[in-house]
Amino acid sequence: MSITKSAVERVAHLARIHIEPADIDKYALDLSQILDLVEQMNSVPTSEVEPLAHPQDIELRLRPDQVTEVNARERLQAVAPAAERGLYLVPRIIE
Amino acid sequence: MSALSAMLERGEISSVELIQCFLDRIDRSQELNAFITVDAEGALTQAQSADRSRANGHAGALTGLPIAHKDIFCSRGLKTTCGSRMLEDFVSPYDATVVERLADTGTVLVGKTNMDEFAMGSSTETSWFGPARNPWSRSRVAGGSSGGSAAAVAARLVPVATGTDTGGSIRQPAAFCGLTGLKPSYGRVSRYGMIAYASSLDQGGPIAQSAEDAALLLQAMAGFDPRDATSLDKEVPDYTSALKQPVAGLTIGLPKEFFDSSVDESVRYASHAALAEFEKLGARLTDISLPNSAAGIPCFYVIAPAEASSNLSRFDGVRYGYRTESYRDLNEMYEKTRAEGFGIEVKRRIMIGTFALSAGYYDAYYRKAQQIRQIIADDFREAFRHCDYIAGPTSPTTAFALGEKTNDPVSMYLSDIFTITANLAGIPAISIPVGFDNTGLPIGLQLTGQSFDEPGLLKLAHRYQQVTDWHRHLPKDFS
Fold first, then answer.
1. Domain that holds residue A37
2. What pLDDT, on the 0 to 100 scale, is given for residue B2?
3. Looking at the partner chain, which of B90, B335, B369 has a beta carbon nearest the beta carbon of A79?
4. Of these residues, B15, B29, B169, B431, which one is catalytic?
5. Domain-located, residue A94
6. Is residue A92 part of a domain?
7. For labelling alongside B404, which of A18, B58, B61, B326 has CA 20 to 30 A away?
8. A27 found inside a domain
9. Chain B residues with CB-CB distance to A8 below 8 A
10. pLDDT at residue B434, as a whole number
11. Of B96, B103, B233, nearest to B164 (Cα)?
């Protein structure tokens, strides 16, 4: 399947990745080639096959509802690009 | 490793001296670009502590021995970059379980190894820090994504290193560098603190010079971890004692799809010669078929990017990692941060994954891929009714040239054709060195087993290494 320039722009927006206009053609070509590879799946009939989501056939385990983590806010926020008074700083989103 | 450990035990050398010796080797081999971070000071401090433990009678099999971790494992107080500009300056606030467990055994962490960005690649060329080079030929790739770990072990810059394997990222670099690399069964090794690429496929494992060393390292890595929801609460066997079990009477299946004309003649020849050795050890060879293995690559390139697009959404410039310099609003901050922080291959895979999961395409891509995944797992189940293990080349070629495949993503993807299906099925597989091509590049043979049969794979590899010496060869500049 060949993917159009507008589809590249739509997907880039959904993925929150800015793409320079000059690079869109290159992405359209690369992604189309990858989709051509992916579509080789269609040579295998699968109508009756149950999808496999996970390699081990187990149920997720439950754990006791107990506090296991201590508050490590300062340590975790020390690696943030911008944090102040325990808050992560981002551009204003509510006027 | 056991030889080095014996020297420490006999007091012939201290851990501090041993670590200094490896640090010197690392320093002389910078052109390989095997490491992203080397922590000489921290390593020597850990070595002093290991020497004290030994003096007090508290030394185990790994105490005081050097190790390197792939830079995908979070290590407290040390940079964890994942090969990406996005995490160029990221210092993890916590240790991955694998890092913690190996530190508990007394190993000395000397540094973090180079890798494809976010483990997306088969050559370590997508690393933000430049490609690792193959110690057997500096113009060749070391494989990927755990190429830095493989280059480091092959050049004896460390005796062992950790890697991770999502579609072949331990086994293919091990094959390209003449090493033993094991991808364990899904759920065997904790993924806590191992930066996620494709969560249903990723597994950590050892890259070593021999099956014996791989067994020692896996012993320390494996086991239940309540902090990883996909870790299995299943007893860990004694991998070292498993090495001594016989091979006689076992059946090894040879999938006809793995020996076709797409495989280099030298690789096919070396694989057949290795299989003849297994026959001499008493194993029986039988022809089998994995009829849908060719669909493994297309299936993988839906599932892995789909999971990656979700996993990598966390890199948004808010809580950690890179943030772009200037932006007008939140959306622009996200979009520019991710445009500048991620390299081209990561962006391609995020976009493919986003596309495959987007409205209207889910059934045609993601659901279809999960159905193929079931069929591939069924193929293995059927094959294991006729044999105990499956053998074939790890990679269709030996190490390719740097730059050879960088402009053609699809041709790069195809180099994982034989390794990818074990990840999709969640089963363990090991690559062992079985010879060299006519230019002197190593060749790897892959052995695949049923879930949790790591002991059997290590045993096969070890018995082969008892009667051959391919794993003892050294690249000529690194003896």
1. 5-42
2. 85
3. B90
4. B169
5. no
6. no
7. A18
8. yes
9. 351
10. 98
11. B96
Query: Who's near B6: CB < 8 A, 6+ residues apart?
Result: none
- Kindly determine whether residue B330 and residue A91, on different chains, have CB atoms separated by under 8 Å: yes
Longest distance between any two alpha carbons in chain B, whole Å? 70
* Burial letters A56-79, b for 16+ CB under 10 A, else e: eeeeeeeeeeeeeeeeeeeeebeb
Q: Show Cβ contacts of residue B158 under 8 Å, excluding neighbours closer than 6 positions.
A: B22, B26, B66, B67, B68, B110, B152
End-to-end CA distance of chain A: 43
CA A81 to chain centre: 21
Nearest to B295 among A44, A53, A63 (CB): A44
What is the nearest CA distance from A15 to chain B, expressed in angstroms?
6
**Choice among B5, B75, B145, B231 that is catalytic:** B145
pLDDT in tens, B212-232: 999 999 999 999 999 999 999
Mean pLDDT for B152-181 is 98
Q: How many domains does chain A have?
A: 1
Q: What is the pLDDT of residue A59?
A: 76
3-state secondary structure of B8: helix
pLDDT at B67 over 90: yes
Residue in A30, A37, A63 closest to B348 by CB: A30
Catalytic residue list contains B368:
no
Q: What's the pLDDT tens digit per position in A17-61?
A: 999 999 999 999 999 999 999 999 999 999 999 999 888 877 778
How distant is the Cα of B227 from the closest Cα of chain A, in angstroms? 10
Per-residue pLDDT tens over the stretch B36-45: 999 999 999 9
CA distance A17 to chain B (A): 4
Is B213 in contact with B160 (CB distance < 8 Å)?
Answer: yes
Whether residues A41 and B200 touch (CB distance < 8 A) is answered with no
Q: Cα B189–B190–B194 angle (5° rounding)?
A: 115
Mark whether B183 is an active-site residue.
no
Smallest CA–CA separation between A7 and chain B, in Å? Answer: 9
> How many residue pairs bridge chain A and chain B with CB atoms within 8 Å of each other?
164
Residue A1 has pLDDT above 90, yes or no: no
Q: Which residues of A touch B425 (CB under 8 A)?
A: 55
Residue A58, SS3 per DSSP? coil
Are residues A81 and B318, on separate chains, in Cβ contact within 8 Å? yes
Domains annotated on chain B, with CATH:
2-252+386-478 (3.90.1300.10)
Whether A38 maps to a domain, the answer reads yes
pLDDT of residue A18: 98
Integer-rounded Cα Rg, in Å, for chain B is: 21
Place of tokens 């041709």: B411
Q: Is residue B405 annotated as part of the catalytic site, yes or no?
A: no
Judge whether B62 and B102 are in contact, CB under 8 Å: yes
Predicted structure pTM score = 0.97
